[in-house]
Design goal:
Number of helices: 11
Helix content: over 70%
Largest sheet: none
Shape: globular
Order of helices and strands: HHHHHHHHHHH
Number of strands: 0
Oligomer: single chain
Distance between the termini: 22 Å
């Protein structure tokens, strides 16, 4: 239960971060934001857990490096894809990783996720369809392809976390993931982006909120929590990110809330509830 609450915390603050990210993307190029977020977060992890990291770094750094690269590819392909498709369509395609994870577990580990999990996953994606409005229709293009790669990388990263946490220290994994992603983002930004300044002090509160609560806190908690939560269940809980993102945008940015988006929220909440009740449903069955 504590691990589930940790993933719920991640979904909550990732959702709220949509508001701060909307401010930051108007100030910095996308990869520079990633560098500031994850490289700074890696420093924070080291400051608080240096002894633990120094003890395990030789054994666990390679695994954390893989996690960082996977997450970097996911975010970059999603960002580039947004140049070709709308935000709603991108959000919906990205959310298909919720469906990919249980089927990948089934294919790779020969473990059937269970009909309850599959129903909850389909409910999540259906809810995302309602949340993203009418942007999901249209012909398949390069933006869709890139965003599908993004969804696939998110799914692979979730499965990789589940595997690596069995034999690695989750704090050291977090440090290595943050550090490697930050370096990848820095190199990408230097090669392909231009920026007006290194730090914008007017948007510093939003940047600090994103670094401390939504990066240092959330991604480290995700890795720690996934040690105790099945990947298929974890992605269903984390899908609440989109619901919290919508609610925070309505409250803080004054965006509209319609019957359609309300039904989408209900579907996703119901899917999470089903996933949480799955052990009790199986016992009664």
């Amino acid at each position: 239960m504590l691990a589930d609450l940790g993933l719920l915390y991640c979904a909550l603050f990732w959702g709220i971060s949509f508001v701060s990210m909307k401010i930051l993307v108007g100030v910095y190029p996308a990869s520079w934001i990633l560098f500031l977020r994850f490289f700074t977060a890696s420093i924070l992890v080291y400051v608080f857990f240096s002894r633990r990291i120094n003890k395990n770094i030789k054994h666990d750094f390679k695994a954390g490096l893989i996690l960082g690269i996977l997450l970097f590819i996911a975010i970059v392909t999603q960002t580039i894809g947004l140049n070709y498709i709308g935000g709603g369509r991108s959000a919906f395609i990205s959310a298909t990783y919720v469906l990919m994870v249980p089927f990948m577990v089934w294919a790779l580990r020969k473990i059937f996720p269970g009909f309850i999990t599959l129903i909850a996953a389909f409910m999540c994606v259906s809810g995302m369809y309602l949340l993203t409005g009418d942007e999901v229709s249209g012909t398949f293009n390069v933006g869709d392809f890139l965003t599908l790669i993004c969804a696939l990388m998110f799914a692979v990263q979730v499965l990789a976390i589940a595997r690596f946490t069995k034999g690695c220290d989750p704090i050291t994994l977090s440090f290595a993931e943050f550090f490697s992603l930050g370096i990848c983002a820095f190199l990408y930004s230097i090669a392909f982006e231009t920026r007006n300044n290194l730090i914008d002090f007017e948007s510093l509160p939003e940047l600090l909120f994103t670094i401390i609560l939504c990066t240092f806190g959330c991604y480290m908690i995700q890795i720690c929590a996934q040690k105790y939560v099945k990947p298929s269940r974890a992605v269903i809980i984390m899908s609440l990110e989109s619901v919290f993102g919508l609610i925070s945008s309505v409250i803080l940015l004054g965006e509209s809330f319609t019957l359609r988006t309300g039904l989408g929220c209900v579907l996703i909440f119901s899917a999470v509830l089903i996933a949480e009740l799955e052990p009790f449903i199986r016992k009664r069955g």
